Each structure stands twice: as C-alpha cells, then as structure tokens.
Amino acid sequence: MTEDSNDDTTILQMYDDIKDDYLIQMQNIHEKCDYYTDLDKTRFKGGFSILHMNVRSMKNKVDEIQNCITRSDIQWDIICISETWLKDDIVKYYKMDNYNLFASCRPVGEGGGTAIYVHTKHEVEERKDLESVEFETNFVQIKINIKSEVRNILVGEIYRPPNYASTNFLSYMEKVLDTIEK
C-alpha cells in the first residue's frame, strides 16, 4: 500500500481478491455444465434436466409459463424461477401438478422472489441453512440415481436485486460455497 492510498483502496483490493476467487470457482462450475437456450436442442434421454426462467412476475404469466413447460415436451426434474414477484400469502396458488414447490418471497415491496419446483419422483430436502435473509434464495438437496449410484445434488436459486451491493452478495456466496464444500 502506498502513502497516498486510503481505506477505500484497501476495501477495493480486498473486493478484487474475493471477486477473483469467486470467479475462478464459478468458472470451474460453468465449464462442467451444458447450457441450452433453444428448447429444441434439449431432448434428454433419461438425463437429469433443469430449466431456469426469469419471469418478472408469475402473477400475470402463469399460463404462459405452464404452456412453455408443456410445449417443451420434457419432463423437467427441476424448474427454477427468479423474479416471481409473489408474496407468502399467495404462493400456495402457484403450485404445479407433479412438482413440490419451494419459494422465497420478498417480505417488503414489489419484485424479486425465487421458486424451485422439484418433480415429485425425486426425494427432496429443503436446505434452509444455506438461505439468506438479505436476498431471495432457495436451496434443495435431491437424491438421484446415476448409473445405479445414489447421488445428492444441491440446487440453489438466488436472486440479487440490481441495486444491492455486490460486495455483500459476493461475501454471502463465499459463505455458501464454504458451507457446501464442508
């Protein structure tokens, strides 16, 4: 640190270190995943399938969401939805046939919210220990059979509002990744 540096510079340097470690971890995860943006390319033959949608309010799009899922002609194992804009008192009206619903709603104001739908064929456990009080998050642990071996898969849906501090979010993600690693 130079003489003319201040606390802000130190904080930025610390933030860069956190960001670099986090980005490396996320890149490693990203390299192991197959992503599809065209549902016609997602014909899975006995594979595990996850769909993510940012819907910016399920309230006025529930039929459109259901149609999209049905038209895909895929029995999705997991459906993750961000920006549900739902409240705790109405979540129960947004269940889907053959899926268990796990949701996190913004307690005050409009927007945000997450939901994870897990197909009922899977044994699932909600992981509240990984959730945040600052962000809308859901985590579930699912048991699946892969080549005759039972595996636990952890799925998380996280929504960070655009105006929320990135440093707080990265700090939270580091804690989550540390907990998962242990």
Instruction: Specify Rg, calculated over alpha carbons.
Output: 19 Å
Task: From the 3D structure, determine the CATH topology of the largest domain.
Answer: Deoxyribonuclease I, Chain A
CATH architecture assignment of the largest domain? 4-Layer Sandwich
What's the pLDDT, averaged over the residues? 81
Q: Describe the strand arrangement of the main beta sheet, using strand numbers.
A: 1-2-4-3
Structural class: alpha+beta
Total count of helical runs of at least 4 residues: 3
Beta-strand proportion: 25-35%
Terminus-to-terminus distance: 34 Å
**CATH H level, superfamily name of the largest domain:** Endonuclease/exonuclease/phosphatase
Shape: globular
Percent range of helical residues: 25-40%
Instruction: Quickly name the level 1 CATH class of the largest domain.
Output: Alpha Beta
What is the number of independent domains? 2
Oligomer: single chain
Main beta-sheet strand count, sense and barrel state: 4 strands, mixed
Low-pLDDT runs = 1-18
Tell me the series of helices and strands, N- to C-terminal.
HEHEEEEEEH
Give the total of beta strands: 7
